Structure formats: structure tokens, C-alpha cells
Amino acid sequence: MRQAPLERFYSVIPAGGVGSRLWPLSRADAPKFLHDLTGSGQTLLRDTWDRLAPLSGEQRIMVVTGRAHRAAVEAQLPELTDENIVLESEPRDSTAAIGLAAAILERREPGVIIGSFAADHVISGTTLFREAVTSAVAAADAGYIATIGITPTEPAVGFGYIECGEELEIPGARHASAVSSFVEKPDLDTARTYLEGGRHLWNAGMFIARADRLLEELARTKPELHAGLVELAAEWDDPATRGPAVDRIWPGLEKIAIDYSVAEPAAERGRLAVIRGHFQWDDVGDFASLAKLNTAGRSGELAILGENARVLADAASGIVVSRADRVITLIGVRDIVVVDTPDALLVTTSEHAQRVKAVVDALRLGGSSDVL
Amino acid sequence: MRQAPLERFYSVIPAGGVGSRLWPLSRADAPKFLHDLTGSGQTLLRDTWDRLAPLSGEQRIMVVTGRAHRAAVEAQLPELTDENIVLESEPRDSTAAIGLAAAILERREPGVIIGSFAADHVISGTTLFREAVTSAVAAADAGYIATIGITPTEPAVGFGYIECGEELEIPGARHASAVSSFVEKPDLDTARTYLEGGRHLWNAGMFIARADRLLEELARTKPELHAGLVELAAEWDDPATRGPAVDRIWPGLEKIAIDYSVAEPAAERGRLAVIRGHFQWDDVGDFASLAKLNTAGRSGELAILGENARVLADAASGIVVSRADRVITLIGVRDIVVVDTPDALLVTTSEHAQRVKAVVDALRLGGSSDVL
């Protein structure tokens, strides 16, 4: 008898992006997923692991990360075995990362269902999360590429949205719909109509699919990329051939987000199912959302991050991140963002938090890579 | 034949105040007068010395400062002789500081005219300054307590004002008037009427008088304080008696600003003359004025202080003071004040710059004196 879907489930955690919009907290050598951004006392990566382990089992979580982060990742996840860590020699975007995991796991275990979850998002409501994943796994078992969309609680302009189409009747999958379209970050008025309409969900970048189905979609849209990944996966589990194969294949793989290579094309062909998730989710994309997260969404309050922060605030709101051992004094600054690290200081406002990435680019061009 | 008035002139520089409103730039061990706040390449104290030396001669400048600052002051002013430095064991406000200088100098040189000028103000227009001092010295020679008032160029609310009375005809003293009243920092509407009326000058805290006249005024208003200063001065120039006299007398002297002990009472008795100064002057009382000073008063610009400042600004105005070796990034912050030092960081706005002093007090009460 075939195993129940959740028994064939494997979690994949791509731990890649630096999180430039959270500079100077996030750095090339200390990316966002290695930070505690919620005051939980552990990193976002560890939070992600702890959320997934009860679903797939801790022996069935694969982490795809950069070679430079190997030691830090292994320190966070001592349970992670060598066979479950995939090291990238250089970043090639999410299709290569998740596609390689899919190809490796499908070779090892045909019929495996994989679920990919970012290493640096914040989720609360574990039970609701598990329910959504369980539904998504059922949809995956039925042949869909599944994603989990988050029910909006406000007209957010910092997220992409998924427009739900007709409801899908899939055994074991509650709250499943077809997807009419993916939409990029909207303006505020559009986001308000989405919130009122009730048909749009936040795109949380979670993809759950049978590995063979995911590879099949990819073969259709990006045959060269697919071929490269399958070829690399064939050499992966032999220590003698993996290294040369990586050197030969990886640098030439197309850089493309899995949203464009798999999810959107599958949606157009009616092969994407979205599960409506009711848990709280945030991608903590910038300091404005970090501030909101740490003041429980209340404006006019000041969030303070930093274990030994010495902050004196007089009529101040926003967020202060203290990573240098200094007294920080704020007077009469509203919605301020102050990030204090030993070699770099950022002062901006919630309103301008999205522009941090552009400034990081300017610093790189300006020869200040030492602080990036 | 009696010497010409300017030949009897002695400059006195009280170098006392920390400048709390400029914390964390100004500190107990690095007060405002030891900073270069104009980008001139030298400290305000040295600027003050250089401004006065052509008037009184560098052998005739007395500096009154705290014992803790002796080494720093002497490093700034290598020309300063031992007999011209008066060290306070503890601060006792400006009447004690200037009164002691007056009493010492009057003993050494009866008939001396002294002029007291703060160590931490910024002045440009040296020729106009010298003209004003020369007039003030002439008024002092004629028996007046003289002060120099600055012709306002804007409705400043951060300064006290001197209201001019009738013009005074004093040989050698141009633009001299009696003083109708001293007024504290006004509100903006009042400051506007002062500016339009043309009869109010900024109180720059400059006092010029014959030492015997100044002491005579003080004897009338504060006889105990006067007696203590005269007694201390009598012991001053004997190394054997100075120390014990300081220990005995100094701690008991009343703390009072010379404005209240001498200037205002003299004004009421028609014995104060104000000379209208046309030079540019600023007491650099807070970061808002420091910002203005370093952007030539243009709003919407960003002043950057710090020799090796690495500042990246995107849509930012105000002032950033860089005293720690860090990259400072400002995005979308207007009229901001960022002061970055190795152990303390201040973020506020020009509008709230006056509140820095209150925060310094709060830090002291809160046990953070290590950064004050």
C-alpha cells in the first residue's frame, strides 16, 4: 500500500537571500535568516526548522544554502545531516535551488512530495500552519503544484498577491482554489480593493508539489535549466562526481525565481492550487515590517531589538536595533528606523524603509563593500 | 600721561560650560570650547584667543577654567603663561569666574579694563568685532559697564535680548546706547516684533568694564561674594597662600551669572552701555544652530561634521556629526540631527534640539554618567 501523502513529505528550506532591505543588520556574512528578529531567542532559520520538523520529521528537512553559510547553518541546526544540506557554490535564484533539491530527492525517493519554505519568514499560529501544509500536501498528491496564500489582514503594499479562482474539490485539501493570476506588489488603493474583495491572498512563496510534477513543469518552461538540474542530481550522491558536476553545471544555470519558471505557468494551465492559510505571516521584508512585528502592529510605539540595548527615548516611535554596545538616545523622532552596528549606522523612517536596498547598491558601487 | 584705553585692556576668557545641549559631542571631559564646530580646523577656544590677541596682546589674555581642563587648554594655547591661567577647583558660575579675574588683575594693575568673552561662541567679521570692542573699551574707560549687543538678522528664539534705550555720547564709543532692559528668550511672535522694531539686540554675554568699576557694582549687589573674591585675589599671587585661600573661600562663593549680579543692576542704574555690534555671532547653543552654521543657514541641506566622515545621504537634511569610524546612512530624514560617537548615539531633529539637555539630565539620573 502506498504511503499516506504526509509520510512522503519532505521539507526544503532555501536559505539564500541576504535581506538587503534589512542592512546593516543583515550582511553578506550574517544574512537575515541567521538573526532573531522576533525576540524569540532563536534565529529565523531555527524557527523555520522547528515549524517543519513536526510535519516532515527532522530527518526529512533539506537545507539549500551558500557554501559560506555552512558552518553557521550547521551550528543552528545540529540535527541536519550531511546528506540533507545542499551547498551552492554561488547563488542561482530559487528555481535552481528548489529544483536541485527536487531532482535529488526524486532520485532518492520516487514519488516524494516536497514543500519549500523560506528560511527567513515569520509565522505564528503553528496549528493553522500545519493544517494548511497538510491540505497543500494533499493537493500536491493529487498532482497540483500547490501554494499557500495568506488571508490578508490589512491592505499591505509590500507583498505580491494571488487572485483565487474557482474552488477546487480535492480530497484532504480544505480551502483550495484554482489561481486566476499572480499580481505584483499593488498600490494602496488596489490593495484596499483586494482586502475588501476577499479573493486575493498574500503570496508567501510557499510551494508544495510532487517532485516529479515540479520537474515536469520545469521541463516544459525551462528545458535547459531542467536538464542541467537532472544531470547534476544524477552525480550528486557520489562524492567522486559531485564536485566536478557542480563546477561544470551550476555556474551556467539560468537565474530565475520559481514563481516565474513554475508557479505562474502552472497557474495558466490550471495546474496550480492555492490553499488559503489563516495563520499570521510576515516576510519581514524591511524595517517598517520589523517595527510593526515588534510593536504588535501598534503605531506610535518604539520597538527595541538588541539583547543589551541601552536606549533612552523621549517622544519617539518606530524601531531601534542595537547591535553595538552604545547608549542610543532618541528625541522627538516619529516612525524612525535606527540600526546601530559596530561599523555602520542607518537612520531612516518607516516610510522610506523600502529604499534601503537602493542605498546598499549605492554603497557597493561607492566602494564601501566592507560594510555590506 | 595715562595710557590709551586699549593699552590698559585685558581679555578674560571664561572657559567653563560643558555645552550639554551639544551632547554627545560635548562631554564633561571634552566641553564645547575644545571642539572645532565650524570646520575651521581649530577649536572654538583657539578661535577666541586668535580673535582677542590683536586687541589686548597675547600676554594680556587670562583664561579661567576648571582644573580638569588645564592640560587641554594649555595644549590649545601654548602662549598662555601660568600667571594668566586661573584654575577653578569647581564651577561657581560666571560672577565668581570673571569677578576673580577682575580682582586679580586690578591688584596687579590698577585701572585695568577687562573684557570677558565666552570661549565657545562663533564670530565672523573680525574687523567689525574689533571696532565694537574698541568702542566698548572706550565706554568702559568712561566708567560704564559695557556690553556688546548683536544686531539681529532673524527672529531668533534661542537668545536673550537687550533693549536699547537712549543713545549715549561717549568719546571713542560708536553705536553706544543706554539699556532699557534685558529680556529672556522670547517666543517667535515677540522675536519678530523685536526684529522689526530695531531696538533689540542679541545678548552675546560680552562684558567690558574697568575692573574697579565691575567690582564696585558687585560690592553693591553681592557684598559677600565681592568680599570673598577680593580676599582670594589678595592671596592669589603668593604660591604659599593661594591654595589654602582657594580651599577656604571658593567653595562658599555664591553661584550666580554675571548678568544678574552686575549687568542688570547696572542697567537699572543707568550705568550699563550697550555697543551695537554688526559682526556675525552665534553661541552655537544646540544642534539646530550648529546645523545652520554649517549649511550657511540654508535649510534643506545636510551639514556633515567629522574629519573622516563616511556619510551616504539620500533625501536627507539637517546635521550629522561623525566622531566614530563608521559608515552613516541617512534616507528620507529631514532636519535630522545624528551625532555618532564611540559610546553614544543621538538621533533627534532640529525642532527638538533644545531638549537634549533634559535628556542628558535623564541619563545622569538613570545611571548612565559613563557617557556624559
TrEMBL record, chains A, B:
Question: Looking at the Swiss-Prot or TrEMBL record, what is one Pfam family this protein matches?
Answer: ManC_GMP_beta-helix
> Entry's Gene3D superfamilies?
Spore Coat Polysaccharide Biosynthesis Protein SpsA, Chain A
Q: Which InterPro entries match?
A: GMPP_N, ManC/GMP-like_b-helix, Mannose-6P_isomerase_type2, NTP_transferase_dom, Nucleotide-diphossugar_trans
UniProt superkingdom? Bacteria
Domain Nucleotidyl transferase: from-to ranges: 12-295
Span of domain MannoseP isomerase/GMP-like beta-helix: 317-363
Q: Which GO terms describe its molecular function?
A: mannose-1-phosphate guanylyltransferase (GTP) activity
GO BP? GDP-mannose biosynthetic process
For this entry, the protein name equals Mannose-1-phosphate guanylyltransferase
